[in-house]
Write a structure and sequence with these properties.
heterodimer; A: mainly alpha; MetI-like fold; about 80% helix; about 0% strand; B: mainly alpha; disordered C terminus
């Protein structure tokens, strides 16, 4: 009896884990792209791009991720755009965390000293060269730890897609609870699985930070 | 099917009712988080060995797992432990504990920023550990981190819709219920979003002015107390400089 229940639990958790991992990874990629596009857009030369980026950042930082995911899933069909739950989840999470990431990118870029820009100017670098070879290598390692925190937040926020009928771990735990009447087991296992994911993300970010931090150059 | 003003006006009173619940929930869970967070931070600082690892492990665990699952856990499992809280109380407990683990980190950074000199002086004055914490360390540790606490307050506001998943009828809960009844979600959910934007702006304004007032106070303090705090100023032999760096 207990063996059956356990194997059932294991199977549902694994099925849910797949969805959660897909959501976390694709949401993080979208958030990463958004963070760079809008974070650099905020310090752009053109007023239009700056205003647009600020609007995006304020909109997605100002409202809750819960509302955004629900809006994408329930309110967009009113405009004739029907998203699948998975797509709504990825978009909602990615755009929300991307807005937080954009601020990280902006502050990291702006934290690079003025002298660096002046040196590039003196060396007659183009704007692209300045950014690619001077600013980014210094700013990127500074962003990474905060990106890691944002990724953890995204992974944790991914649990709310269970409320728009996407069968992630949380959803599977609820289903298991309803199916078997067990309460402690599914939620305890779910918490532990999320914690393992959390540790995995921490490990991932730590190794990326080690790779990306500037190497000591022998002169 | 596009935006319908009439429908939006219809749903508004319900949202206002939910807004009250949202605000009360935010304030009470933040109050819990502020107290509990401070307790965790101090405990992590004064304990050693297994108890320290236990506390820091538990806070890591709470910080690393989703609040939604924690809320479900409390909501469905507290009755088995013979604790029957209403859904609202469950939500506040969950939010309070979850955010306390974040705030404890903030407090810790404040405590760690205090120069070693302060601890040594307290010891030299023969203060008991309680007196040291109460009169020397905490007042100096808490004030600089207040704006950061304010940021977490703003973040907390935006997470309150999770309460609707354990059947607390806050703003989002009211909106979904109204949407379910009329099968129109566009207006209710959009208006919830707008209300959250407004709420966030108000909160940000409050936190911002608090930070400004604190900044002004600190400048005044520094000015009046500079001769007392820094007797070695300009003499080039300030002993605290070596300790800080």
């Amino acid at each position: 009896m207990t063996e059956l229940v356990l194997s059932d639990l294991l199977r549902s958790v694994l099925r849910g884990l797949e969805i959660t991992v897909i959501l976390t990874i694709s949401g993080s990629i979208l958030a990463f792209v958004c963070a760079f596009v809008f974070g650099l857009g905020r310090v752009s030369r053109w007023r239009f791009i700056r205003v647009f980026s600020i609007c995006y950042i304020e909109l997605f930082r100002g409202t809750s991720v819960f509302v955004q995911v629900f809006w994408l899933y329930y309110a967009l069909p009113a405009f004739g755009l029907l998203l699948s739950p998975l797509l709504a989840g990825i978009l909602g999470l990615g755009l929300n965390v991307g807005a937080y990431g954009a601020e990280v990118v902006r502050s990291a870029v702006q934290a690079t000293g003025r002298d660096q820009y002046e040196a590039c100017c003196a060396l007659n670098f183009t704007r692209y060269q300045t950014f690619r070879y001077i600013i980014l290598p210094q700013a990127f390692p500074r962003m990474l730890p905060v990106f890691g925190n944002n990724m953890v937040e995204l992974m944790k926020a991914s649990s709310i897609v269970s409320l728009i009928s996407l069968s992630d771990i949380t959803f599977q735990a609820q289903q298991f609870r309803i199916r078997t009447g067990q309460t402690f087991l599914p939620f305890a296992v779910t918490l532990i699985v999320y914690f393992i994911l959390y540790l995995g993300i921490l490990f991932f970010i730590r190794s990326v930070t080690r790779l990306a931090s500037p190497q000591k150059v022998k002169v | 099917m596009t935006w319908d003003n009439h429908f939006a006006v219809m749903v508004f009173p319900y949202l206002l009712k939910g807004l009250q619940v949202t605000i009360i929930a935010t304030l009470s869970s933040f109050a819990l988080a502020v107290c509990l967070g401070l307790a965790i931070a101090v405990l992590e600082k004064i304990t050693r060995g297994p108890i320290f690892f236990l506390i820091s492990g538990v806070t890591h665990f709470i910080r690393g797992t989703p609040l939604l699952v924690q809320l479900f856990f409390l909501y469905y499992l507290l009755p088995y432990a013979n604790i029957t809280l209403p859904a609202f109380g469950c939500g506040i407990l969950g939010f309070g504990v979850h955010y306390a683990t974040y705030l404890s980190n903030v407090y810790k950074s404040g405590i760690e920023a205090i120069p070693v000199l302060q601890w040594e002086v307290s010891k030299a004055c023969n203060f008991s550990p309680f007196q040291t914490w109460r009169y020397v360390i905490l007042p100096q540790a808490i004030r600089p981190v207040l704006p950061v606490l304010g940021n977490y307050f703003i973040a907390l506001i935006k997470e309150t819709p999770l309460l609707s998943s354990i059947s607390v009828m806050e703003m989002m809960g009211e909106a979904s219920l109204f949407g379910d009844m009329h099968y129109r979600y566009l207006e209710p959910i959009t208006m919830v979003g707008v209300l959250f934007l407004a709420l966030g702006m108000v909160a940000r304004g409050c936190v911002g002015s608090m930070a400004r007032i604190l900044g002004v106070l600190r400048e005044k303090d520094d000015h009046s107390a500079s001769s007392f705090n820094r007797p070695y100023e300009n003499s080039g032999m300030d002993p605290s400089e070596n300790l800080i760096s």
